[in-house]
Amino acid sequence: MAQNKILVDLKKSVLEGDDDIAQELAQKALEQGIEPMLIVNQGIIPGIQEAGELWKQNEYFHTDIILCAEAFRLAMEVIEPRLEAGDRGSSGKVVIGTVAGDMHNLGKIMVNATLRGGAFEVIDLGEDVSQDTFIEKIKEINPDILGLGCYMTTTMLEMREIIKRLEKEGLRNNLKVMIGGVPCTQEFAEEINADVWGKDAFDAVEKAKKILGV
Ligand code: B12
Predict the structure, then answer these.
(1) Number of helical (H) and strand (E) elements in the chain, helices listed first
(2) Which domains does the chain have, with CATH numbers?
(3) Which residue's CA is the nearest one to ligand 1's atom 57?
(4) What is the pTM of this model?
(5) Mean pLDDT of 73-96
(6) Using CA atoms, how far apart are residues 43 and 45, in angstroms rounded to an integer?
(7) Residue range 34-47: average pLDDT?
(8) Which among 99, 155, 182 is the best mutation to test ligand 1's pocket, defined by most ligand atoms within 8 Å of the CB?
């Protein structure tokens, strides 16, 4: 199958929520020697982005998006290990999680994949992560960066509370905090005393390297 056709079909399978097909095509794309990052950028992401657009236009509903999300997840599952080919962990250690009350994770999965591709060691705490869990894991793992994912205006203030807790517990001095997700901005990052906002998964890697000076 021609490279371009595989990527077009992969995008379509994510958009239509055909999870088995998405996984199969992601595997086939790798077998045909297509660059993992190209598969992500030109196959998987455009599919989920278009699904998001259809949601905004009220053409897709929850059930559609859930199917798309699963297709996205399964396709990424195939590609992700191949993005880890870099010198794993040499750029630094990142603990990441979606804040309490928020179950969105597709953006975070993307960020994890690109960070790993950028030779970061990534420890993903999952979704709906409580302040206590963040604090406990920071103490245990001692990462260079804490990544906070937040996808709804209603959960944004949770990030401010987490940063306050870090400051109160003396954990903030050697830890950089990077935030991301649809409602976040650099201004908001500054307002809540985070170090940086990552616009997208690639910006996240660039900024992570920049704040650590690697
Ligand atoms: C998919 C989706 C869902 C799926 C989630 C599936 C999943 N496994 O994640 C489902 C259907 C389950 C869902 C549920 C809900 N959703 Co929803 N969802 C979306 C949708 C359509 C797309 C989000 C997405 O995945 N985008 C694709 C990813 C790749 O993009 P991204 O998240 O922006 O991530 C990129 C960057 O932001 C950045 N990034 C992301 N994370 C991080 C982290 C760090 C550290 C950094 C540096 C960067 C970074 O890099 C990513 C890649 O480039 C958005 C609409 C939108 N425009 O975003 C609504 C949206 C986020 N959802 C919304 C809502 C309201 C809900 C529900 C409350 C709906 C309901 N009534 O039940 C529930 C919430 C449940 C909960 N408690 O969390 C609203 C939020 C509104 C608000 N208050 O702000 C949105 C904006 C839709 C809307 N316009 O109304 N949702």
Answers:
(1) 10, 5
(2) 3-83 (1.10.1240.10), 92-212 (3.40.50.280)
(3) 52
(4) 0.85
(5) 82
(6) 6
(7) 89
(8) 182
